[in-house]
Fold this protein.
Amino acid sequence: MTKSLNWTRKAFNRSIEFKGEKGEIIGTMTFKILDRDVEAELNGKKFRFDVYGFVNKEVAITDENNLEVGKIYLGFRNKAEAQLTNGEKYIWKRADFFMREWELIHDLPDTDNDPVIINYDRDRNFLNQEGKISILESSENSDLLTLVGFFIGFYFLRRRSAAAAVALGVAIS
């Protein structure tokens, strides 16, 4: 059974709100101004994403008790892989060039038939952004995985925006 969430990000706001099927706020993700770390909460479960590394960036994911629950390995050309401490692996994949859609895929061992477990989409209207998250396969880690896939998508969006701003500054000067 598919479960859906909606998300919104208002212009100039560092926080993203996640809303349940009835429109109630069930979580947030907050990006710090001068820090690369991100704090997130979904359905009462709190996580922190700590980005480190220079060329090969990694993200340590910790829960509210400061215990590591997983890692994200961020690669070049918008490639990423997540691994939970229980050994499960997930692959993040964008569905289109404009990053309007992306998905999280469960990387099952010994098979090439890996299921998409979560779909994400993004719409932009002027300065605001909003979208829908479809959880296709529920598990005990659904909240964490939903935030992992969302974090990766926004990490690449923010990196692309920063590169575009630098390129625009170089072009103007």
